Amino acid sequence: MSDDLFKINVGNLAIKNPIALASMGGITDSRFANEFAEDAGLVILGGYNLDAATNHAASEIVKRGRKEFISDEPLQLIDNELRSVKTESVVAINVRSATLEPLIEAAIMARNANAIIEIDAHCRQPEMTELGIGEAFLSDLPKLRDTILKVKETGAIVSVKVRANVVDNIKMAKAIEDAGADILHVDAMKEGAGADIEAIRKIRDATRLLLIGNNSVNDLNTAKEMFTRGADIVSVGRGIMEDPSLITHLVNETTLIQKELGWYNAPKHVCRGEGDLRGLAFCCMPVKPCPVHSNVKKIGLSPKEFADVKMEFAKGTPLEYGDSTCFGSLVWCCKITKMCPLRDGVLEMIGLSDADYMELKRELADYILDHPKVTGK
């Protein structure tokens, strides 16, 4: 399997596929990763408690029957764990601390090991939130921003794990991105069962950070639901306890999709009301009443500017062809999974494979959303 098949890069690291092992307190250590996540693109160890306050809180949590990692020398534990992972995955360490200095030390350790540090703004156990950490970070975004800024100053690649729907998801995502984080890991929790897929879509539209979707990823269909709403990676937690081969299965199936279709997490069409803004790559020319107009408005472009941006990208690429298509160019054509004899006839005529067509559409989506007119740069 080619390590660059999926083109998932963060900092100086290339993540070989979009399936991750999520951190689970007291469970996800190097032994667990080596046994169940050999094929994962990313393994997230932890959460580890870095100072006296969090280790004491963890001891109280254990008394209630939950599992936790507790250590008198947490940094030595993390160092040993980083050295003990035998998979070829990128490794991250999920950490908690009531004080800043241990986070800085852990970040330096992660950086030196070519690993990622993940700040836990997710744990909802009262022993942790009473310390002002875990989920409590989300109610104090200035504190979370300052923590991210200080940790990022070490040069480490920084992920932040959060729980959706605790505070305003959009404000949260923008604050984390503005603070300089590299990855946003979202537990898309909702009341009842299952994941809040709409939360993933809205967060995707609010940030260009590498986005990891989490919650109830138990099979390929649930993974695809997150991928098509904008998750770059999905993380697996409890599901692997029920199906030890889950990560391998998801990696194999997602690899087949990528090889055949060229864009494993291609969005749904925006005209269906389900696609994120990347779906503008599949939109028709904005000449009739359609959701394309409201979505183009979201990114600050007029219909004409949007048309100009797409045609700028198409120039000199195979997407420029397609006189016989609805709008005279493949740049306006839809997702390859939607039947279209006109589009397919042009692809056959110019010798462009489905996967190569979709790869160009992925590049087009990035071009639109990274355009100076959109970003304000």
CATH homolog superfamily of the largest domain = Aldolase class I
H/E element sequence: EEEHEHHEHEHHEHEHEHEHHHHHHH
User: In the CATH classification, which architecture of the largest domain applies?
Assistant: Alpha-Beta Barrel
Strand order of the largest sheet: 3-4-5-6-7-8-9-10
Fraction in helix: 40-55%
Number of domains: 2
Give the radius of gyration.
22 Å
What name is given to the CATH topology of the largest domain?
Answer: TIM Barrel
Number of strands: 10
Percent of sequence in beta strands: 5-15%
Structural class: alpha/beta
- Return the CATH class of the largest domain: Alpha Beta
- Kindly, what is the distance between the CA atoms of the first and last residues, rounded to a whole number of angstroms? 37 Å
Residue-averaged pLDDT: 96
* Low-pLDDT residue intervals, each spanning 5 or more residues: none
Which word captures the global form? elongated
What is the count of DSSP helices, taking H or I runs of 4+ residues? 16
How would you characterize the largest beta sheet?
8 strands, parallel, barrel
